[in-house]
Amino acid sequence: MIFEITDTIHETDEKYIFEGLLEYNLERIEDKNPRDLGIYLPDETGRKIAGLIGSTHGNWLFVKYLWVSKELRGKQIGSKILIQAEETAKERGCKYSFLDTFSFQAPLFYEKHGYKEVFTLENYPVTGKRYYFTKSL
């Protein structure tokens, strides 16, 4: 057995591995209908100045990214976006939320919003931390 090891992942290779995993998962997973969730705040020109990218799947909201432009930070925009995501997730039948954040990002922000730390990667990627949080909606 000879493994091919590479630093360059080609799109076709990633697609092939993903499709193999997806086929396996779809035979077993209860909810086969994840839904994307995007919440954006545009400025007067239509440029996005804050937003959230995530998804809902079964009982869970997954927050992949939450970003607020520098000039809007500290004005409760992130809180409003997160609350809207949670409300939308509840409307979709979700009971829980999951996200991760780096130590230099927003762990205190999420704790303030009721998220509980369930796991931390220490020394990630070298000296920092990566926190994983969940919340009951």
TrEMBL record:
<dbReference type="InterPro" id="IPR000182">
    <property type="entry name" value="GNAT_dom"/>
</dbReference>
<protein>
    <submittedName>
        <fullName>Acetyltransferase (GNAT) family protein</fullName>
    </submittedName>
</protein>
<keyword id="KW-0808">Transferase</keyword>
<dbReference type="GO" id="GO:0016747">
    <property type="term" value="F:acyltransferase activity, transferring groups other than amino-acyl groups"/>
</dbReference>
<dbReference type="Pfam" id="PF00583">
    <property type="entry name" value="Acetyltransf_1"/>
</dbReference>
<feature type="domain" description="N-acetyltransferase">
    <location>
        <begin position="1"/>
        <end position="137"/>
    </location>
</feature>
<dbReference type="InterPro" id="IPR016181">
    <property type="entry name" value="Acyl_CoA_acyltransferase"/>
</dbReference>
